Amino acid sequence: MTHLHITGWVLGFILLAISYAMYKKGNTKAGKIVHMILRLDYLLILYSGGDLITPYFNGGSLMAEAIVKGVAGIWMIAIMEMILVRLPKEKPLKVLWIQFVIALIILLVLGFVRLPMGIQLG
Ligand code: HEM
């Protein structure tokens, strides 16, 4: 399941970059198609993240950190979506990119350093 999760979020960042580049070039149609594929990938991230988080709802010492990890993950999906919705409308993105960096740091620290699974087979 960690592999599915990693596949989900790495693919998400790649699709975000491609869609971003397409919109930026003025190729709205290609940007929209990649954006739609990214929306399907959100489901993969949510499904794998949801599966990974369930064992933490046991009142154990890592429950709070796992909840923060999950909330930050949903926040990151919202940021990615807002970037791609605002970009073709030529609205400012600076505040979103700042949030992107903050959310990414939280996700990487909690995902790889604090929570125990990291990259695991199975
Ligand atoms: C774009 C969004 C997300 C990013 C960039 C992200 C990033 C990460 C990273 C780097 C890890 C550690 C390595 C791994 O197993 O993949 C991880 C694990 C995890 N993520 Fe996410 N994640 C995202 C969304 C979510 C969501 C939406 C949830 C919950 C609903 C979630 C819950 C978890 C849990 C529970 C773990 C396992 C921690 C462990 O047991 O070690 N993530 N995530």
Automatic annotation (TrEMBL):
Main location: membrane
Transmembrane segments: 6-23, 62-84, 96-117
Alphabetical keyword list: Cell membrane, Membrane, Transmembrane, Transmembrane helix
Subcellular location(s) per record: Cell membrane
Keyword Mitochondrion: no
Keyword Transmembrane helix: yes
Family as reported in the entry's similarity comment: Belongs to the UPF0344 family.
This protein's name: UPF0344 protein SAMN05421807_103238
